Amino acid sequence: MALKRRLIALILIGTALGALLAYLHDPPWLLSVTSGMRPWETDLDGRRVRWMGGHASLFVPSDGRLVSIPIRTTFNSGDPPVTATISIDDRPVDRVTLTDAEWRLSTIRLPPNGSRRARRVDIRVDRTRADNRGAAVGEVTVR
Amino acid sequence: MKTVIAAAAAAGLAAYTLIYAAGLAPAPIRSDGFSYYVYLPSWFLYHDATLASVANDCCGGEFPASTAIIRWPGTNRWVNAHPIGVAIMQMPFFAIAHALTRWTNLSADGFTLYYQHAAGIAGLCWTLAGLWVLGNVLRRHFSAAVTAATLATILFGTNLFHYATFDSSYSHAYSFFLFAAFLAVAERWNRDGKASTAVLAGLVAGLIVLVRHTNALLLVCFAPALRSDARRLALAAATFLLVVAPELAIYYQATGRPIVSSYGELGFNFTSPRIFDVLFSTQKGLFFWAPVLLLGCAGFAILSRAPSSARRLVLPSVVFLALDTYLIASWWDWQFGGSFGHRGFVDALPLFAVGLAAFFAWATRTTSRRALVATIVVCAIALNLFQMAQYWNRVLPFSDTTWDDYRAVFLRWR
Fold first, then answer.
1. DSSP 8-state symbol, B395
2. Among A36, A72, B91, B169, whose Cα sits 20 to 30 Å from the Cα of B292?
3. From the list B61, B62, B107, which residue is nearest A35 (CB)?
4. A8 to chain B nearest CA, in Å?
């Protein structure tokens, strides 16, 4: 009797874990997940931006074709340029060198649609300014 | 005991969910929690023991000053003020988080969603494990009711619950477990002559030092209470050295020396300890913020004269608590930064639990005494939980609380 109860419990736990894993493979909330980003703020030119440290990631819908990422950083006299590397699902797709405080726009053609509803975009910078500020990222658009 | 631990698990999970769902605290890997955890992504994701690769990825090559990770003068390599013990105990949780991160296609940099909550939940799990081990130690000397009351009081009447949930990535939940485990192993050492107990003692002792170096004091205080046995002592010492060796190697590669003060120039003021402030002040006084622990002190006095088998735990516990108080009071930042209550004493709560259990056992001897003590303890727990919620909601200051600050918000929500 005890063995039968244990078997039923194991089957139930296994089923629940399987269902959870299936759900977590492509969860709908992924599109709202970001990491390495500070809260939204308004930049000097009125644009909505989020500052990142050395590395940030965000998700875009996989049915889009072009992703545009506005990016800039701050420059004091003598500051070296900052290079931002952008990857989609761990594959490097663009590199932007920031040599002044102006906005740059990285426009990336998304690779063919995969099996998931979201593609991961990682942005890495090679150096950060004071207070671990790497770059300001504007609102990402997907077409 | 099982009921208390089940209730603790349910309350802990509920509080943890509330804290992060309501945005009461930033992501779990923060402040000291960052530097305790940072070894895991460095070792397993970047295959780098120097921490430089994590610095490159997270912070453009330089860890911010707030992380307690400094460049060592002379070698220019990173030295982390916080040792590797917490990271070692977080490993199983990290492994699950990493597998899930890959599965969901989150960024596998060590700091995304699952890694954050793996580090947060790990502290809660080790606290629950600590309660379980402590309960088994207490149960050998006290009744089931006294044991259950002691566990509930230690968890909800002190800042342990806070360090199991809100600040669970700090080292204190881990040290709480290890101190409880050390009590269990020390008792087993005196009961049996097994080699496996010696290996276990060396492992627990090594982890105690790897989580917080100054807690080596516990080993020194309890060593005279262990039955002398040269063969098992050698085995325990060998295991201990094996466990702490990676930390010595890390210090050596970073500084050229195996033993260093990882806090750099920060240190102790042994000639002017703030003992009264550490114990009684409004800022972080241990007994001001957790008055139930005074009952634990009274319990030590009772236990020292009682014909109880727990009596042999009194002397090493009291000596440790006295020396630890002196050490904490001598630290340059005797408040230990922002914290609820004095976090320096969370590690030693299993020792206080022995005194508290003795006090509860004494209190249960007459009905009137039991009713009085129960009333006092319930009020102290209610006040503690209310003040904890005040701290979570930023009604209470993170540090430097004055008497005027305290009075202004006493039993107030805003």
1. S
2. B169
3. B107
4. 22
What value of ipTM does the predicted structure carry?
Answer: 0.91
Which residue from B minimizes the CA distance to A121? B107
Q: Is residue B124 in a domain?
A: yes
CA distance B119 to B112: 11
Return the residue of A nearest to B104 by Cα.
A25
For residue B414, tell me if it sits in a domain: no
Select from A30, A33, A55 the Cβ nearest to the Cβ of B58. Answer: A55
Residue spans of the domains in chain A: they are 1-29, 33-142
pLDDT tens-digit readout, B123-180: 999 999 999 999 999 999 999 999 999 999 999 999 999 999 999 999 999 999 999 9
What is the C-alpha separation between B403 and B414, in angstroms, rounded?
17
Binned at pLDDT 50, 70 and 90, residue B261 comes out as: confident
Inside any domain, residue B386: yes
User: Structural domain of residue B319, as residue ranges?
Assistant: 2-409
Q: Is residue B395 part of a domain?
A: yes
CA distance B288 to B405: 14
CATH number for A33-142: choose from 2.120.10.30, 3.20.20.100, 2.60.120.260, 3.10.20.30: 2.60.120.260
CB contacts < 8 A (A, B): 63
Contacts of B190 (CB under 8 A, 6+ apart): B225, B226, B227, B312
Split into its structural domains, chain B has a count of 1
